From TrEMBL:
Keywords: Signal
Source species of the chain: Nothocercus julius
PANTHER family in the cross-refs: CYTOKINE-LIKE PROTEIN 1 (PTHR15974)
Protein name: CYTL1 protein
Signal peptide per UniProt: 1-23
InterPro entries, A to Z: CYTL1 (IPR029253)
Amino acid sequence: KLPMMKMLLRLIALLSAVLLASSAPPTCYSRVLALSKEITESFRDLQTSRDTDSCVETLPRLYLDIHNYCVLAKLRDFVAYPRCDRVLQVSALKEKARSLYTIMISYCRRDLVFLTDDCNALENPVLFPAAPS
């Protein structure tokens, strides 16, 4: 009976460790990375949507690479863009971009490492086709 109890306790400890490891809070870097991908995808969806306002075509490009120092200027320019505020999707996207900028310069500034400062790479990114789902 005692060996069975020890084995059961070990199993519970192992399962608890696995659950704790998979439920670890996101790091600053992982949060910034996920939010930048979400914003980039939302922008792409907005541009390809058929029922958006014509002003969406005039928005600055919004490809975000958080490893590129120029991303900070890109986010500032997008948030400050004066047109399209009447389009709800654009306003929501600007709020997300403002949040990302704030997170990057306030909460994560010591955690992020910029590998480049190639602003042109954010204007003309090399996009790879999406993986089939």
